[in-house]
Amino acid sequence: MDTSPTRNHAPSWRSTRQRAAVLRALRDRADFVSATDLHATLSADGAAVGLTTVYRTLRALERTGHVDVVRERTGERLYRPRPADGHRHYLVCRRCGHSRPVDAESVERWAETVATSTGFAEVEHTLELTGVCRPCQSDAPRSPE
Question: What angle do CA 95, 22, 13 make, to 5 degrees?
Fold first, then answer.
């Protein structure tokens, strides 16, 4: 059974039934998801996976570059499988959590320029864009931000 978050890029670890369940549940989500929401989904589906296992699996996926991560307003980390062609940047709705990838080629070029000009290697970066999606703009009253 394929337990990788993307078809072409499998994580390098010993597969377990619990990890496979976490990966399946993560792939089944359309948008970013928190570890606690992912755990709740697994529990509702009858999977015997502990919250600690969910957190450990997501951290391992993050370390190996298999998920993209954003932070919610509260600071909670949200996860989404990384596409096989590399990490992406997303615009995330602060109200409903819907996300969409955005073209950030200029950010990638800037990060490469900074790395080259400073002599640093293995430079990583995080870009978080949040807003309010069109459906939330029309469906919900404005809340103080």
Answer: 130
pTM of the model: 0.68
Look at the alpha carbons of 125, 86, 81, 18 in this order and tell me if their dihedral is positive or negative: negative
User: Tens digit of pLDDT for each residue in 16-61?
Assistant: 888 889 989 999 987 899 999 999 999 999 998 999 999 999 999 8
